[in-house]
Amino acid sequence: MARSTTPTTPRVHPPSGERPLYWHIAQRLLAELRDGTLAAGERLPAERRLAGRFGVSRQTVRQALEVLRGDGLIETDRRGSHAALPAGPLGTPSFLAFPVGARPADDPAAVARAAVSWETPPPAHAEALGLAPDRPTLVHRYESARADGRGLRTALTSFSAVALAEVEELARYRDRADPSVSPELRRAYDWMRRAGLTLHHRDCITHLEDAPSMLVTRHVHDQYARPLEITDLVVDTRREALVYAFTLPAAG
Length: 252
Prior knowledge:
The structure is a single chain. The chain contains eight helices and nine strands. It has helices at about 20-35, 45-55, 60-70, 125-130, 160-165, 170, 175, 190-195, and strands at about 75, 80-85, 110-120, 135-145, 155-160, 200-205, 215-220, 225-235, 245-250. A hairpin with a 5-residue loop joins strand 7 and strand 8. The longest helix has 15 residues, at about 20-35.
């Protein structure tokens, strides 16, 4: 059972002096728990994958997990370890939800699904992001609808090489991309701002023929005109309207 309090550091601390390697690995995993990269209830990668990602032995990974387990930050069962935190990322609420135009999480009538994968993006996305043909990147898929099927929203987002190089939290998903696991990217724009990027959005809205929907094609670039991401968002317009245009400054 997840704790009702918000932990900030592992309870188990090594003796004074130089921290052992497993403690540093625990701290790195803790950072992912705190910023929402590892969502509540999400299963952690297998010990072998974690060992490869951090360049340490599996024994070191086991010791790091034990640190987090001792403080109630993760739980382990027959299927492996998973994050044991209250729902949603810790810390300050997101300045702006991702993707913009996605249904608010507090809409009680909507059911949303999301997934990330490491794959070749659509040709139009690759061109907009300056990616070579057939070069894979991080791709995020989102879908939400009410129980009656109305108000359907779908979004396909591709991230650029610049975004993955500049934004540490996004880069982590390259090795963790799994279309069967729901990702926690609600703070993606906050992550970009904390990386010192000013986000400029340009949305092109068009009507889809033979469908009660609008297509929003969003291009996001930084203060140096480098592309960061492109999103194709399709919104059912039978009950909804779209109004948004903004620039997000870098975090101060």
